[in-house]
Each structure stands twice: as C-alpha cells, then as structure tokens.
C-alpha cells in the first residue's frame, strides 16, 4: 500500500489575514424627523461621543466614521469589529434620554445592515380598549 500525501491546512498565522472589510450601518429616522420630534444633530453628536473603540469613548479615530448622507439618516462606517446590535443599543439609550422610548421603536430595516425608527402602533391599542 502506498502512502498518499494528505493536504495539510495552511499555517494558522497566515490564514484569514485578508483585507479588513469596512462595515456600513445605516439608521433611518425619516418619520420622527418629518414630525420634528427628533433632532438629527444631537443624535449624531450622541453617537460620536458614546461609541467605544478599544474600550474608550470619544476615540473614533480612523476606525469609525459617522456622517449624514441625507437629513433623515445616519451612516456609521467601521473598519474592524463593530456590532449592529451595539448601534441599536445606543439608539435606544438616546431615545430613553429624550423621553421618546415609549413612542418610537428601533426595527431592523429591509437592508441587512440598517435600522429604522418607527412609531409604536398606539391607535390599534386604543381601539381594543374601547371595544372591551
């Protein structure tokens, strides 16, 4: 019996060291901004001040950038590890601080890397209470 050569996996130090991809996350705030109950400038500043990079806040550097592609949305670009869930957490904290958490919720949008701010459907709850 002849011994066949088995392909060994690549060295773990060289494997997976490709180019770091840039992640782009978008938060669409169109409905609350149209109703003028949500201030985009203060939200953008809040994200800039609170996003942690390497365990430190306010230290975005070249790793994370925040911009407003249009007046009703925020775009966060991250080079390296960054969680979409962390962005949702920060958005909820901002809404809580503005006393809007009871009226607005953060929902994953149609895009994989997007969130959307929507109103809670209060109208249907009021109809149910009057029907009883």
- Average pLDDT: 82
- Which percent bin holds the helix content? 25-40%
* Count of helical regions: 4
How far apart lie the N and C ends? 83 Å
Largest sheet: 5 strands, mixed
N-to-C SSE series? Answer: EHHEEEEHEEH
Order of strands in the sheet with most strands: 4-5-1-7-6
How is this structure best summarized?
The protein is an alpha+beta fold and 132 residues long.
Give your account of this protein's structure:
This protein has a single domain (23-119), classed as 2-Layer Sandwich (Gyrase A, domain 2), CATH 3.30.1360. Helices cover 30% and strands 25% of the residues. The protein has 4 helices and 7 strands, in the order βααββββαββα. The protein has helices at residues 30-34, 40-50, 84-97, 122-131; strands at 22-28, 52-53, 56-57, 64-67, 73-79, 104-108, 114-119. It has a 5-stranded mixed β-sheet. A two-stranded antiparallel sheet has the order 2-3. The termini are far apart.
Which SSEs are present, and which pair or pack?
Elements: E1 22-28, H1 30-34, H2 40-50, E2 52-53, E3 56-57, E4 64-67, E5 73-79, H3 84-97, E6 104-108, E7 114-119, H4 122-131
Parallel strand pairs: 1-7
Antiparallel strand pairs: 1-5, 2-3, 4-5, 6-7
Helix pairs in contact: 2-3
Please tag this protein with its features:
132 residues; Gyrase A, domain 2; 5-stranded mixed β-sheet; two-stranded antiparallel sheet; ribonucleoprotein; Ribosomal_eL22_sf; Large ribosomal subunit protein eL22
């Amino acid at each position: 019996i002849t011994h066949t050569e088995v392909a060994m996996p690549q060295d773990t130090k060289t494997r997976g060291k490709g180019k770091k991809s840039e992640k782009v996350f978008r938060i669409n705030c169109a409905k609350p901004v149209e109703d003028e109950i949500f201030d985009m400038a203060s939200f953008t500043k809040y994200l800039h001040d609170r996003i942690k990079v390497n365990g430190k806040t306010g230290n975005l550097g070249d790793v994370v950038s925040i911009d407003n592609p249009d007046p009703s949305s925020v775009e966060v670009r991250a080079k390296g590890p960054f969680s979409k869930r962390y962005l949702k957490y920060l958005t909820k904290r901002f809404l809580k601080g503005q006393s809007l958490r009871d009226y607005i919720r953060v929902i994953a949008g149609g895009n994989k890397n997007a969130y959307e701010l929507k109103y809670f459907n209060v109208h249907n709850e009021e109809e149910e209470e009057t029907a009883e």
